[in-house]
Amino acid sequence: MDEEINSENKINNSQPDYTMYKYHTTSQSSSIVKEEAVTENKDMEDETNNPSAPEDSSEPTQIKIIGTAHVSQKSIDEVVDSIKQEKPDIVAVELCRSRYEGLKGEDKSNEEVSIKQLIGEGKIYFFLMQWLLAYMQKKIGKEMGVKPGSEMISAIDAAEEIGADIALVDRDIQITLRRFWNKMGFFEKIKMIGSLVGGIVGIGGKQMQNVDMDNITNQDVVTMLVEELRKIAPTAAEVLIDERDAYIAGSLVNVAANAGSGKKIIAVVGAGHKSGIQKYLSQPDTIPSLNELNTLPKKRKFSITKAFGFAIVGLAIATFLLIILSGTPLELLLMAFGGWFLINGTLSAGGTFIARGHPYSVLTAFSTAWLTSLNPMMAAGWFAGLMEAKQRKPRKQDFKTITQMETKEQMFNNRLFRVVLVAALTNIGSMIGTFLGVYVMLQITGIDPTEVIEAGLRNIGL
């Protein structure tokens, strides 16, 4: 053990800092896996011996896996009872360092989100996705009367009570979320966000609505929920479930290898991970490198999102060129541009207004929308968001409470959330305004694009 949290309970913080032990590839055949689900269904309990493990006179290390529902009081009670009865040497929890510190109220990070980086690097929708995921889990927890993460805190408290060491075996949450966002395609992101919003407003699928949280650790229910996620967003399921199954299994192998022989380890993980982790532990040679699972996928040089943005700009520029080349009188040309300016600006400003942006932010959106629609490297939301941040600078408390908001009033009182919402809705308004503006310009000038294109082709002999 390298680092002590207190005199009795230790968390090793060697590299990488979100596992308890350094990774040893030569030790993956040293453990016996004992699996037990937190459920009354006894047929789910089984014990798996590693077929590749060589015979050894030393006593084998045992790993007991407990699958829990993250928002169930029944799971909390069963986790605590199991730890107190088994008295393990180590309690491994499905947490990374930052999540552990957040749950324990020991978050030492003073890092604040850079507004310019958040807006300028196109992280607005990624930020909103993070918030939606956190809000959804908190909403479910509130309905169940259980705070999300309570079973992990209870496991840690129980470990401290019996003097067991604590192992943090999950991948860093930021790496998971960034891999999750970067690997998803445009339409999958839209579908995922739509499902989250639907769940928040209560229009989720019947299957999801009829789930009993106290029975969520039942394997049939777990399978149904996982398959439901795979239908909605297969890439999300791969990153959030499959990759983390492998990562947690690899971390547990490392914990067992470094704990020494004859140790008892209890791993507390979400029910959706239990089966996948067990499969990896029964065949440790199939566990991928943890370093590989910690790398961020390279950004795609081409994406539907980028193509869509360039297509919108191309449409606007092509319309202007079409009007100019058609010999439209200057007076009519100015009227068409005026219509474009007003429609694009009004809809962009409307998005800012809906987000309850500052009057200066509304004015900024109105005045810049026409220009940003002609440049794929700029967006009206950037300017409006930066103006909002300037007029209502996010406070330190806004960064801390962004994931704790529950009511609409709390959301709009959080300046950071409002900056993000202003930028997002302004961009949406500008996009709609571009399409509508093009239509109005063509109506004002009376130009039929098809006729102009056909005439041009005839002139060049095609």
Describe the structure.
- Helix 15 (359-372) packs antiparallel against helix 16 (380-391).
- By secondary structure, the protein is of the alpha/beta class.
- The chain has 20 helices and six strands.
- Residues 1-57 and 203-211 have low confidence and may be disordered.
- Strands 2-1-3-6-4-5 form a six-stranded mixed sheet, with helices on both faces.
- It folds into two domains: 25-293, no CATH class; 304-453, no CATH class.
Radius of gyration: 27 Å
Question: What's the number of structural domains?
Answer: 2
**Unreliable stretches, pLDDT < 50, 5 or more residues?**
1-57, 203-211
The structure class reads: alpha/beta
Give the biggest beta sheet. 6 strands, mixed
Mean pLDDT: 73
Overall strand count: 6
Q: What percent of the residues sit in helical stretches (DSSP H or I)? A: 55-70%
End-to-end span in angstroms? 78 Å
Transmembrane segments: 307-325, 332-354, 360-386, 416-442
Protein name: TraB family protein
Pfam families: TraB_PrgY_gumN
InterPro entries: TraB/PrgY/GumN_fam, TraB_bac, TraB_PrgY-like
